[in-house]
Design goal:
The protein is an alpha/beta fold. 36% of the residues lie in helices and 23% in strands. It starts with 6 loop residues before the first helix and ends in a 12-residue tail after the last strand.
Length: 368
């Protein structure tokens, strides 16, 4: 019996058959290949994994998101049923914390129909364990695609989801723009290359700034992220509700190669070990705002994560948790508050973007 292919071997064979891949095609296979992809084969979170997200840093993050969701539900008229959807729900920690905190708003948890959009079998299993242990009375449905979620008003949560959406990269050369590709060498190494064909390039939000990108400059666009955001926004515009998108990247579209690989909590070469490292790129919040406005929702923000959580009362929540906690627990709460909100930590790099039905008022967190 032959040994199973590694993802690198699979990619080399694919390149041999099809030619060089776009960076987006490479990312899609590296992250989501059904049997060899990064998210198909592991739980990547936590100290023993590759990275930690905000819900794993502190319960405060999920609690405040849960209260935000419940308040949005109230402004919607407290419908008897609302689809509470999380895109890329990690270990299920955010949702479990959110539902626990939202119980203070009468009727919300009973009205919430929880839907997880998750492609990874290992993470699905972990999510089922978390929800069974912490919210056993809540029925959860899993989907590969948001379009499979049944009709109805929605509240959509997406924390560190869009940064894993595949990006295409384009490099400016003296004769115009060329797409950056992933090719394979004769000895089986993956390398970056450039398309020999100039590309017509007019991505949304870049129309007025392409001329300012220097020679050899790189821009990134994510048709996949824009398509997903469009589906969310269209659902909200048609059926009512809101979405909360938390991720990292600049407020305005900006040039730069932001593709990065993270492995064992450190940075790695994106081409070195496909399928063994997380691949992400900065989120273009201006593009997501453009998509939302075009779909007919009211776009809120982006605002910094630190400002958003501060407006929701994370400082007061931290004080309550520290008041009666043992010294070592109180220290951990203080450190988590700093990590989530401080400008030199996650507070400024991470942004929060909102979509809301135009008939609804702006929810907390987006205004003083």
């Amino acid at each position: 019996m032959t040994e199973p292919l590694t993802l690198a071997e699979h990619l080399c064979r694919r390149i041999g058959a099809e030619g060089p891949l776009s960076v987006a095609e490479f990312m899609a296979d590296a992250l989501a290949h059904p049997t060899l992809g990064y998210y198909s084969t592991r739980d990547p979170l936590g100290a023993d994994g590759d990275f930690v997200t905000a819900p794993e840093v502190s319960q405060m993050f999920g609690e405040l998101v849960g209260l935000w969701s419940a308040l949005v539900w109230q402004t919607m008229g407290s419908p008897a049923s609302v689809r509470l959807i999380e895109l890329g729900p990690g270990r299920g920690t955010l949702m479990a914390d959110a539902l626990a905190a939202a119980r203070v708003v009468p009727g919300f948890v009973a009205a919430a129909r929880v839907h997880f959009v998750e492609i990874g079998p290992a993470l699905r299993a972990r999510q089922k364990e978390t929800m069974a242990a912490r919210a056993p009375q809540v029925a959860v449905e899993w989907h590969d695609f948001i379009g499979d979620v049944p009709e109805g008003p929605v509240i959509v949560l997406a924390n560190e989801f869009f940064d894993a959406m595949p990006v295409r990269q384009f490099k400016r050369s003296p004769d115009g723009w060329h797409e950056r590709l992933v090719d394979a060498t004769a000895d089986g190494r993956l390398v970056f290359a450039l398309s020999g064909v100039r590309q017509p390039l007019v991505p949304p939000t870049w129309d007025d700034t392409l001329g300012d990108v220097p020679e050899d400059g790189v821009i990134e666009v994510s048709p996949a992220a824009c398509a997903m955001a469009g589906l969310v926004a269209e659902r909200i515009a048609e059926r009512g509700g809101a979405a909360l998108i938390v991720d990292y990247g600049p407020e305005q579209s900006a040039p730069g190669d932001t593709l990065q690989a993270v492995r064992a909590h450190g940075f790695d070469d994106p081409l070195a070990a496909p399928g063994e490292a997380d691949l992400t790129a900065h989120v273009d919040f201006a593009a997501l705002a453009h998509v939302g406005a075009r779909a007919g929702v009211r776009v809120l923000g982006p605002v910094s994560q630190g400002a958003f959580l501060g407006r929701l009362g994370i400082g007061a929540r931290a004080e309550i948790l520290m008041r009666t906690a043992p010294p070592e627990v109180a220290r951990d709460v203080k450190l988590a508050l700093h990590r989530l909100c401080a400008p030199e930590a996650m507070g400024t790099l991470f942004k929060v973007l909102g979509y809301i039905h135009p008939a609804l008022p702006a929810p907390p967190g987006f205004a003083d």
